[in-house]
Amino acid sequence: MKINDNFFMKLAIDEAWKYQFISFPNPAVGCVVVKGESEILAIEAHKEAGQAHAEVNALKAAFLKYYPNDILKTKSSSKQIHEYLIKNHNGFFNDCKVYVTLEPCNHEGKTPACANLLKELKPQKVIVAHEDLNNIAKGGCETLKNVNIDIDIGCMKKEAYELLYPFLKWNSGTFIFYKMAQTLNGSIDGSISSNSAKAYVHTLRDKIDLMLIGGNTVRTDMPTLDARYIAGRAPDVFIYSKNKVFDTNIPLFKIPNRKVHISDDLFKLLDYKFVMVEGTYNLLDTLKDRLDYIVLLVNPKIRNGANALNEIDIDFEIVHENYIGEEKIMFLKRKS
Amino acid sequence: MKINDNFFMKLAIDEAWKYQFISFPNPAVGCVVVKGESEILAIEAHKEAGQAHAEVNALKAAFLKYYPNDILKTKSSSKQIHEYLIKNHNGFFNDCKVYVTLEPCNHEGKTPACANLLKELKPQKVIVAHEDLNNIAKGGCETLKNVNIDIDIGCMKKEAYELLYPFLKWNSGTFIFYKMAQTLNGSIDGSISSNSAKAYVHTLRDKIDLMLIGGNTVRTDMPTLDARYIAGRAPDVFIYSKNKVFDTNIPLFKIPNRKVHISDDLFKLLDYKFVMVEGTYNLLDTLKDRLDYIVLLVNPKIRNGANALNEIDIDFEIVHENYIGEEKIMFLKRKS
């Protein structure tokens, strides 16, 4: 296997995918720091809105790889790390290459601008997979070029675009994904997911703006649709139903500060940025032209049980996959 | 992400998996060479029987990473590389760590012993994931300890065991895997696989000892069951059928040097070491207690079509997965 820019960028992209959706409303971003030709010092990501950006986490980890007992290890806020590194880097990064999946931000928001930090640390080279399309944050590469830091843009751009895609979509409109769980052979009957997969679904519910579910599922299963496994926030719910009559004594309707819409007008989804659908193949058929992703949880067992119930033809690209415990998670992007 | 022994060993294991089955009758083995603390120089694997072992490929690549124009690049046979490195290493590996998924062989066979090469190159440390259980080849760690090379055994041992498992099985008996292809939702109707997935299946056919197939499939589909997409060798065929009457004019029976068994006695499979089953769920039901793996090719599309046809309950562990073009390949080990 070739150990080159693509290899290091792939490590950054894979690390970022671990926090895909979790970083909402921010993009998932990964960063790798390499000293000299191929001494790998850090593989980090942006984990959650309000926390440090990928570059900051990676630069901190890289410095601590050499100086594990440095006082830097006690600094946790982005601002503290910025300030400490700018004062104490002592040229440490001058022979380093920094691989980042998205152009470093040029904008002082909740956290200081990464481009400014890199400008001060003066790494030998910054390799960027995808430019920033956000009018407020962009311009990071320009800032670095102006102080003569070597910049390379476009390494693994297609993979970085797929990583960035949910952000691009929710930032300019609505990103809609369908969560499904099945066995290896596609059976959707009965209880399928493990506890760790269920906890992951609750982690997603804690992040999304809105959950869409079919009226029949609400009537039959009477789900609460909260995020209790992780003590998280319960999202607003959109019940897709022509028949507007529901037993509002079920727990779903009793959650404080939750809005519940009952409607068959899907246009209302577009008031939200980040929508998860949980449901059956019926709803999949209705939504298929508006869907961005299917997030498919696959439990590795074969069971007798029905799979496709309708005439549905959809083609996907597997943009990423990972494990949740022993189960697979696949991020499937609808081909248009 | 922590950059530690596990991180480097995982790179070696993943590289080796690319050649799982293809290395038959040899085990799939991977090797990573790291200079100093974390300067990654090579990620290589054993690719095919008769070719260089993983360690030899990795040590060569590591040396060439520093000296890309060295005459070593013209050496391709294992013996040549051994001899050249032993003469010309000049202490290059003394500050290197060598990660290898299987204990280096201690036995001069088709290729010289890797333990002997490492003994001469004297790396700082050799990290071995799994000891060699083969009576002929084992003892490599002992050889290295005797010359005071630091040895660590057991890093990611469970993952290395899964990598080694097919070899352990075919080396001491018969390894049987079931090749299946389906859509995302488990449909097995119609033509499913892409051309690259078909070529991969032919690559497997070229390597296996025996292919098992059901009598009805032969009668209905009249398949040739050769490896023509890769101009490879056609394996022997075992037609599982109570009814022994077949039209022997179909191409399957016309391939020179191919043995075709027609039998309903599965015990005969045990005369072979490496058996692939291609067939329907019926055959899966018959074989489920003898099966080691399912190798599942998943085409990322949803199509209306049947999945499980029988009452089958089998649990699996996903031991590895990869891509073949846009399709997924999953290596599923039956849980016992």
Automatic annotation (TrEMBL), chains A, B:
<comment type="pathway">
    <text>Cofactor biosynthesis; riboflavin biosynthesis; 5-amino-6-(D-ribitylamino)uracil from GTP: step 2/4.</text>
</comment>
<dbReference type="Pfam" id="PF00383">
    <property type="entry name" value="dCMP_cyt_deam_1"/>
</dbReference>
<keyword id="KW-0511">Multifunctional enzyme</keyword>
<comment type="similarity">
    <text>In the N-terminal section; belongs to the cytidine and deoxycytidylate deaminase family.</text>
</comment>
<keyword id="KW-0378">Hydrolase</keyword>
<comment type="pathway">
    <text>Cofactor biosynthesis; riboflavin biosynthesis; 5-amino-6-(D-ribitylamino)uracil from GTP: step 3/4.</text>
</comment>
<dbReference type="InterPro" id="IPR002125">
    <property type="entry name" value="CMP_dCMP_dom"/>
</dbReference>
<dbReference type="GO" id="GO:0008703">
    <property type="term" value="F:5-amino-6-(5-phosphoribosylamino)uracil reductase activity"/>
</dbReference>
<comment type="function">
    <text>Converts 2,5-diamino-6-(ribosylamino)-4(3h)-pyrimidinone 5'-phosphate into 5-amino-6-(ribosylamino)-2,4(1h,3h)-pyrimidinedione 5'-phosphate.</text>
</comment>
<keyword id="KW-0560">Oxidoreductase</keyword>
<protein>
    <recommendedName>
        <fullName>Riboflavin biosynthesis protein RibD</fullName>
        <ecNumber>1.1.1.193</ecNumber>
        <ecNumber>3.5.4.26</ecNumber>
    </recommendedName>
</protein>
<comment type="similarity">
    <text>In the C-terminal section; belongs to the HTP reductase family.</text>
</comment>
<feature type="domain" description="CMP/dCMP-type deaminase">
    <location>
        <begin position="3"/>
        <end position="152"/>
    </location>
</feature>
<dbReference type="InterPro" id="IPR004794">
    <property type="entry name" value="Eubact_RibD"/>
</dbReference>
<dbReference type="InterPro" id="IPR024072">
    <property type="entry name" value="DHFR-like_dom_sf"/>
</dbReference>
<dbReference type="Pfam" id="PF01872">
    <property type="entry name" value="RibD_C"/>
</dbReference>
<dbReference type="InterPro" id="IPR002734">
    <property type="entry name" value="RibDG_C"/>
</dbReference>
<dbReference type="InterPro" id="IPR016193">
    <property type="entry name" value="Cytidine_deaminase-like"/>
</dbReference>
<dbReference type="GO" id="GO:0008835">
    <property type="term" value="F:diaminohydroxyphosphoribosylaminopyrimidine deaminase activity"/>
</dbReference>
